[in-house]
Structures are given as structure tokens and as C-alpha cells.
Amino acid sequence: MNRRHLLAVYPLLLFSFFVSAQDNQRITAEKCGTMKRLEQRFAQDAMLKARFERNRLDFNSTVSLKKNLRDANTESTTYIPVVFHIVMTDPSLVTDAQIQAQLDTLNRDFFGVNGDSTNIPPYFKTLFGKSVIQFCLAQRTPDAESTNGIVRITTTTASFGIDDAIKHSYSNGDDSWNTDNYFNVWICALSNGILGYSTFPDDGSPKEQGVVIDYRSLPGGSFTGFNAGKTLTHETGHYFNLYHIWGDDNGSCDGTDYVDDTPNQADATSGCYSGIKTDACTSGGNGIMYQNYMDYSDDGCLVMFTPMQVARMEAALNTYRSTLLSSDGCQPVVVQNYDAQIRAINQPVQRLCSANFTPQVTIRNRGSQVLTSLQISTQIDNGPINSFQWTGSLPVYTTANVTLNNLTTTPGSHLITVYVSNPNNNADQNTTNDTLRINVQYYLPVTQVKEGFESSTFPPTAWDVVNPDGDITWQRVTTVSKTGIASAMIDNYDYPRIGQKDDLRMPVINVPAGTDSAFLSFQIAAATYTATSTAGNMWDSLEVLISTDCGQSYTSLYKKWGSTLVTRKTETTDAFYPTSSEWRKDSINLANYIGNSNLLITFRNTTGFENNIYLDDINLRTVVINPNLKAQGFLVTPNPTNGLIAVQFYPQPVNLKGIELIDGLGRKIAEVIVANGQANNYYSFDLGRYAAGTYIVRAIFSDRVIIRKVVKY
Q1: 600-610 per-position pLDDT tens digit
Q2: Same domain flag for 159 and 50
Q3: Strand order through the sheet with 682-686
Q4: Residue 671 scores a pLDDT above 50
Q5: Residues 299 and 344 in one domain
Q6: Same domain membership, residue 532 and residue 463
């Protein structure tokens, strides 16, 4: 089934499986969205699925060989730093006390010291697994500042789904902390009755690794039966590569959780049983293990992992998430007396439109002493160092924006380095945060652009790409083109996030005063996945914008989407590759910008998860009209001539019916008939075949006739 069909079906599946969870109502059917999320990822990316399944086979083989051996890295208690991102319309609804209670529950469950383990029936006591994995609230941020491991973000999104939108600030969520060093847990309101979902190791973007749970599942939350904190235990099991105990096989009994000491089970358990419970897959003996954290029983019934589950989790920690073992996130920050930080380089950003520029930076006081003076140094490539002495008053953990000395650069790409030193005329006691570097480019403005992306360098010299989310963006392809062998393309077909903007920016442009006309033209090819007649759809859009302040602000010149953008009229459910006839030339009049310098034009794609867009043959053309033509309005050149003559009009002729060429005897020897409304500015005749002498060019309008003499020698 096509990946789009799968994605379209999933909301229906979720609706049929999930009962909407309101406060004080029981959650029924599917509680966990982990497997659905994984299936969606596979539907979007077949290569991810192949890689994931190959890694799973390798991992299962490794775990099988080490069955009862604990890795040396996890022989003693291992602490993993956790950051809780509370992302809600009112994040204060989740208290610090609830977070601590949730963390305590998670630690007890993993360590096997949970008080409710007394509910493990005697016949499963020998299968009670105890892990050395423990969790702490992060004590330091990735930037080495003090924290309590709890981040509160106010969002306008009432509830989130399983599409990982909560994990990105651009979609009203909160960005992860470095997932190599922190276990990220997002807390929010989840839709469709889902209690939580998790990532498996190596299942996609590293920035999205972690667990998401509904805030009502926290200890003391409002989800009756599911408010003892076991949801996080369950999802953390997935995070460390555990599968559902029934193998997600819809009752066929041939699925697996890849663990040998859990009984085969037909399907998820609901409610809270007591005593032996059998089913079609385990019809005798001690029955199924509905007490296992990887089942769907009510929180009051979930009390255990098995030894092999513990071994699998600890192996996953060492195989996939070993960087968590060396993280210093659990260690409190030692605040030095003198610790100044260069926090950000605000200006310039990627593109310079002038050789002269003024850097702007943000500094931060990380020391315990009030920061009153600081040296800020800048360097372009390996050039001379320019120093700036800042004075002010910055208490601990406060910032200030600073404008530095003017700098001058040369055309090309450059590395700008900014570093701070001598806080309060003392040695900086933490030099790890003193330096930042950015790459910028500066090229002299041009007056003409002709770009077909034929060079293998992309972006072309003096062009750049702005890719805010660091994901799919503009690229050069050699499989599709209008002319030549290449074009620029953005892969909206595989870009599922709606509303992401990616810019392809042209060189800086000057349109000199005295220019009579200026036009930007380009070839475009585009298609949609969805029928263009669909109402209310979110479409891919292509916009052309112009900036007069080097990209600080833009004015839109052109914007098309849906039916106005496409060059293939029918929807295309496979990736779009245009034929030679599926291109369109669009043109934009830049007359309003004649006389302007340092113009920056950008092609902006905004994603709608539709289909690919291609650009080729981008041309910026300026025209300067012959001053004699401008003065006379009708000109025949050259005169005299021995061959071709150009018959030119300025401005565009109106009511022109035709042009006649008359010889010295009054005979019409050539003519051009002009259809109504089809007049051009330029026509030509070849006098090379005629005898020397004087000829007359007659321009015939509906209301007048204009003549010019021309001499053939």
C-alpha cells in the first residue's frame, strides 16, 4: 500500500481503536501509540524500515548469545538524566511534586523495589526482573547551566497526536535536549485516548528520541485506573527496545516480543484480572502474564518486568544508547566566580550584502560575581583580531546584547569567530563556552542572473539555502530538467511536516537607475498528491519574495499553490518527475525596484506534504532602451545598411496592423501582418537580397501611418 494511503488510513484506525479519554473516564482498547507511530515512519521511509529490521535481527542475535550475562557497563547501578518537557496550554497543571512522584515510580519499577510487587503471583515470582537502570532529574542543561530537569512550555495546541509535533518548537512543542545525553520525556494532553508513545532505538531522527505521555497518567492524575505512573514505565520499556508482551499479532499467536521468559499471549489485556488468566495462545499452565509492564492492564495490575526483559533493556542501553552512560546530566553545575559566555551571534546571519558590517552578539554571565567588564574579540578567517571592551552590569544567568566594532570582508565564503575573555579583568574559569563561529558569505552584487544549475556546486556560487528545521530542503537533481541536465528541487513528497519554510536565495542584485525594464523569469514544474479540487487542503506553495534589507524583511512578489501552481493537472500519488512538456515559464516584473541596490530575491517553499517542486532556467534580465528610440518611439536601425534592419517601437505599440517595406518604385516588397492585440516591440527585415537604393518602412496603425526612410548601400 502506498505510504500516503497508509497515513490516510491511520487516523481512521486510531478512531476505531481508541476511545476518547475524558477526565475520570476509563481508557479502553489501544493505550500506546508506539507501534502505530513506527508503522507510520515505515510507510514514509522504506529504507528506514529495512535498516530497522536488519538492526533488530542483529540485536536479537546478540541478546540471545548473552542471555543471562549482564554487560560490564551495567553491572552497577546506572543513572540516566531525565528532562521532563511539560507542554500544555496551562503547564502549571502539572506540579513538581507529580514529576518527582512519577520519577520515583519509574525508578522503583525498574529497580524491582516497587511495593506493589507483592501482587506478583507465586508462580511468577521467579520471573521477577530487576534492572540496574535508574533515572535522575537532570541537574544541568546541555549548555551546562543549573536546572531541576523540568521545562514548562505554554502552547496554543490543546492536544497532540503521535506525529512528534510536540518535540519541535516550530510545531508548538518543545525541542529535545541532546538525546545522546538526556532521556527526554514530553508531558502533554494526547488525543484519541492514547496514554503515551515512545521511540525505539534507531527508528528515525535522533532529535525525536524519547517518550511522550499524557499528563493525566501521572501519579494523582485524572485518568481513573491509569494514574499511578505506569504509563511512563511501559513507554520507557519501548525506549529500551521492549515490545508489547502479546507481540502485536492481532491474536494470531505467531507474533513475538523477542523475549523468551514471557508467556505467549493472544492480545492486549484490559482491566485488572486476578489469579490465572488463560487465552487462545496460552490455554493452560500459569496462563498469561497480565501483570507485565508491557501489557495494557490497569496501572494497579502492572507490577513486573522479567529477567529477559531486563537483559534486553540493558543490552539496548549498551548497544544503542550508551552515550547516556557517560552523560554528566545528573551532576550539579559548579558555578565559578568568573564565567562569561558568548551565547549567540545575532548578526550577521549567513548572508552579507555589504563588505562592511557590524556584528551583534549576546553575552551571558555564568559566574557568581556580577559581570561588569568583558573583552569581546572577533576574527574573520585567519585575519587580524578585532577587540571590543564591554562594560555594564550583568548578574548571574542574565544576558545582554552587544553591538561590536565594524568589520570589513572580501568577496567569498568566510568563517567568523567571536570569543570572550577577561571577565572583570580576571581569567575566565570556564573556557568551554567562550567561543562561537559562524559561516557567512559575501559576494559583489550582480545585475544579471542566468542559472540552470548545471554546475555540480549547489547552491551555486553567491546563492544560499536557508533551512530552519535542518530537514529536507532545496537540492540539485540531475534526473529532471527543462534544459541541460539539472534543476533545483524540493522533495515535498517525503516532507511530512506541514508549514515548514525553505528558501533558495539568489545572489545580491543591483538594478541600476536608467534601466528601462527588469524581469525575473523561471521554469517551474509541480504536482500535487491530492486532487486540486479538494477544499480546505494544506497545499505546498511556492513564493518569490524580495528583500531590500539583506533578508531582514521580505515583500511577496508571487505566490502560487494547488491548482495555480501545478504543471501536471491530475493528482500524482507517486513522486512527481515531470516530462519535458510539464514545465511552465513564469515571469515577474521588477520595474518597481529599478534604481535599487542590494536586493535579495528568494524562492520560498512552504510544505503541505503534497509533491515535488522543480525550478530551472532562472533568469534576471534588465533592459536599457536606446535613447533615440525612447525619444522618437519608432526607429529603424542600422541606417544605412547592407543587410538586416531592426524595426523597433517604444513603448509597446497599440493598434498596430502591419509593417510594409516599399522600394524606390513604390512597390511593396515585404510585409508583416499583425493580429489584433499581438504587436511586439521588435521586427526585422533583410535588405541584403535587394538592390542598393532608398527604401521606405511603413508602420500602419488603425488610426495613422508612420514612415521611415532607410538607405541600402
Answers
A1: 999 999 999 99
A2: yes
A3: 634-637, 644-649, 682-686
A4: yes
A5: no
A6: yes
| Omega of the bond leading into 507 within 30 degrees of 0 (cis) | no
Closest CA to 262 of 281, 238, 288, 280: 288
Whether residues 581 and 699 share a domain: the answer is no
pLDDT score, position 170? 87
Backbone angles phi, psi at 701, to 5 degrees: -105, 170
User: Would you say the C-alpha torsion 532, 537, 540, 545 has a positive or negative sign?
Assistant: positive
Strand 634-637 relative to strand 644-649: parallel, antiparallel, unpaired?
antiparallel
Q: Do the beta carbons of residue 411 and residue 444 sit within 8 Å?
A: yes
Q: Pairing state of beta strands 351-352 and 435-442?
A: parallel
- For residues 600 and 586, state if they share a domain: yes
pLDDT tens sequence across 455-476: 999 999 999 999 998 889 999 9
pLDDT digits (tens, 9 = 90+) for 525-566: 999 999 999 998 989 999 999 999 999 999 999 999 999 999
Q: How many residues does the chain have?
A: 713
What is the DSSP code (8-state) at residue 508? P
Both 348 and 322 in one domain: the answer is no
189 to each of 158, 208, 520, 639, how far by Cα in Å? 7, 18, 48, 81
pLDDT at 6 over 50: no
What residues does 12 pair with on adjacent strands? none
pLDDT at residue 66, rounded to an integer: 61
Sort residue 644 into left (φ over 0), alpha (ψ -120 to 50) or beta.
Answer: beta
In the numeric block, the cell 552590569 is attached to 393
Residues β-bridged to residue 416: 380, 438
Identity (one letter) of the amino acid at 10?
Answer: Y
CA distance 377 to 342: 10
**Of the candidates 274, 296, 326, which is a domain's last residue?**
326
Q: What is the pLDDT of residues 46-86, one digit of tens each?
A: 788 888 999 999 999 888 766 555 565 556 899 999 999 99
- Which residue segment(s) compose the domain that 255 sits in? 3-54+74-326
pLDDT of amino acid 11:
38
Q: Is the pLDDT of residue 223 over 80?
A: yes
Burial of 283 (0-12, 13-18, 19+ CB in 10 A): exposed
Number of domains in the chain: 4
Q: Among residues 235, 451, 543, 660, which one is catalytic? A: 235
Give the pLDDT confidence of 424-462 residue by residue, as tens digits: 999 999 999 999 999 999 999 999 999 999 999 999 999
Distance from CA of residue 626 to its chain's centroid? 49
Q: Could you confirm whether 235 is annotated as catalytic?
A: yes
Interatomic CA distance for residues 265 and 287, integer angstroms:
9
Q: 282 and 388: one domain?
A: no
On whether the CB atoms of residues 489 and 481 are closer than 8 A, the answer is no
Could you tell me what percent of the chain has a pLDDT over 70? 94
DSSP 413-476: EEEEEEEEE-GGGS--S-GGGSEEEEEEEE---BS-EEE---SS-SSPTT-EEE-TTSSS--EE
Rounded Cα distance between 351 and 598, Å, is: 12
As beta bridge partners, residue 356 has: 408
